[in-house]
Amino acid sequence: MAYRPVRKAGLLIPTGTYNAPDALHLHFILTDRCSHGMHLLGSVASIRRGKFHDPTVIIEPGDHPFITQRSYVIYRRFLVQKAAHLTTCVDGMVYQKHDPISEDLWERICDGIEDSEFTPGFVLDYWDENQT
Questions:
Q1: How far apart are CA 16 and CA 106, in angstroms?
Q2: Which whole-number Å values give the CA distances from 98 to 20, 26, 49, 118, 128, in the listed order?
Q3: Whole-angstrom Cα Rg for the chain
Q4: For residues 1-18, b (16+ Cβ closer than 10 Å) or e, as one string?
Q5: Please, where are the H alpha helices in 4-131?
Q6: Model confidence over 64-89: pLDDT tens digits?
Q7: Largest CA distance in the chain
Q8: What is the Cα–Cα distance from 1 to 57, expressed in whole angstroms?
Q9: Is 71 exposed, middle or buried (0-12, 13-18, 19+ CB in 10 A)?
Q10: CA-wise closest residue to 30 among 73, 93, 84
């Protein structure tokens, strides 16, 4: 059965670099499928000592099974992707399904979309048109 993207679903998406080619970042689908067949995805990364991070939403270990150290939502790297693309990537084993987020964490992340000074304009526009 083909993967069907839904709001709150967790995905591990490859974000590898030269130094870490197999790196994966946790993403969450934040919206239902819009009239254009798209979803908004949010990204999460670990907080590293001495490195800047967006303080808008901090995720603690235990807030999600994948999170083992303090992490933050990377609003500047949010994505809008077609549902069909998400299905193709999961079914083709490029993206990996992960546990969904809780209602509480989903609300915190979504509240931060308008609060973060790093949220790109296209994300704010998409959110205004498609928040659920």
A1: 26
A2: 21, 8, 27, 26, 27
A3: 14
A4: eebebebbbbbebeeeee
A5: 83-91, 103-115, 121-130
A6: 999 999 999 999 999 999 999 999 99
A7: 45
A8: 35
A9: buried
A10: 73
Q: What pLDDT digit, counting tens, does each position of 13-64 carry?
A: 998 777 887 888 899 999 999 999 999 999 999 999 999 999 999 999 999 9
Q: Is 109 buried (19+), middle (13-18) or exposed (0-12) by CB count in 10 A?
A: buried
What mean pLDDT, rounded, does the chain reach? 94
**Which among 68, 66, 47 has a CA at the least distance from the CA of 57?**
47
Q: Does the pTM exceed 0.85?
A: yes
CA pair distance 114, 16, nearest whole angstrom: 28
Please report, to the nearest 10 degrees, the dihedral formed by the alpha carbons of residues 92, 94, 98, 104 taken in order.
-110
- Give 15's DSSP letter: -
Residue 127, pLDDT score: 96
